[in-house]
# Entry
Amino acid sequence: MRKPWIVLVLLFCNVVIFAQNNTLFDQATTAYNEGEFEKAIGFYEQILTNQKHSANLYFNLGNAYYKLGEIGPSIYYYEKALLLNPGDSEVKNNLSYAQNMKLDAIEEMPESAFARFYNATVAQLSFDQWAYLAIGMMFLFVLSYLAYYLLFGATKKRFAFITSLVAISLCVVSVVFAYWQYQENAANNPGIIFSREVTITSEPNERSERIFTLHEGTKVNVLEKLGDWQKIKIADGQTGWLPQENLKLLKDF
# Structure
């Protein structure tokens, strides 16, 4: 059991870090509005060193790098923002602008009916957001169920009963969607190419066949790792190997 003074010290440290992060965020916003984008990036990165991660922080970093014309980092931070808040339309819009500036135009594989349904529904929230929604619906179900027994009048009871049914149904759906999203998140290991140009080879060595070339800002999925090499897959289904120094993983929170 922790001693009271240790708890107080930890609480004080958290308050100090929170205040420091708010100050840094305000300084970064001021620098960004004044056109000092590199300075703003410096402030945002200081917040990251305090282990503060948020969709807004990554979105602002993406904007700052986009203003500097650095496509790889801008796409990288927009994608990280979407991992935390998949349904954010503003992030998606800015990401599309940045993607239009990259060199690689990869035709994606046709989506199945389930994939279209998944992207239109499940992918709109992260798995923890679906979990929070499930908890909220469970609380609503409990309150509605209690109201059914405590309220008087047929109309009020009917409304409470219908509300409880809707809430428990949405709770179950949210749990299922949270599980699907968690499985999808665990199965994928996305990354962004940071080198201006990198050659993808058929095997994890420089002597193997060169099969295609990728450029800065292209999103890939890392399938496996062997030494300093990583096997990647791109949107059209092609796979190959590249040195790991050429990309940055998105899930490095």
